[in-house]
Amino acid sequence: MIDIENETLISLAEAATIVPCGRKGRTPDVKTVYSWTTNGCRGVVLESVQIGGRRGTSKEAVRRFIEAMTAGSGTHKQSLRRPASTSRQAAVVAELERLGVRK
After folding, report:
1. Which of 6, 13, 42, 55 is the most buried (most CB within 10 A)?
2. Could you say which DSSP state residue 81 is in?
3. Does the model's pTM come out above 0.85?
4. Separation between Cα atoms, residue 61 and residue 75, nearest integer Å
5. Tens digits of per-residue pLDDT, 35-57?
6. What are the residues whose beta carbons fall under 8 Å from the beta carbon of 22, sequence distance 6 or more?
7. CB half-sphere exposure, 71, CA atoms < 13 A
8. What are the residue ranges spanned by the domains of the chain?
9. Dihedrals φ, ψ of 15, to 5°?
C-alpha cells in the first residue's frame, strides 16, 4: 500500500517513463501502466491511489512492482506447464513397450 506521506507520488505518465525500456527500446504506454494498476500483470498489481478522477502511483510502488515481477519471472513459465498425469505417462510407456520401441 502506498504511504502518501512518505512516498513520492507520480502520475501514471511519469511512471511509464521510469519503467526500464521495453520492446524496441520504448517505454510502456500509459494505458499499459493503467492496466497494471487495475488488472495487474502475471499476478502482480502496481499499487495506486485515486485522486479525484485521476489515478497515480509512487516511485517506490513502481520499484516494488518491478521487484515483484522480477522475483516471479523465474517460476512463471514453470507454473504454466501442467505435469502429465502418471496414468497418461504409464499408458504411453505401455504403448511404446507394446510396439517394441522401449524395453
Report:
1. 55
2. S
3. no
4. 22
5. 999 999 999 999 999 989 999 99
6. 28
7. 8
8. 9-98
9. -60, -40
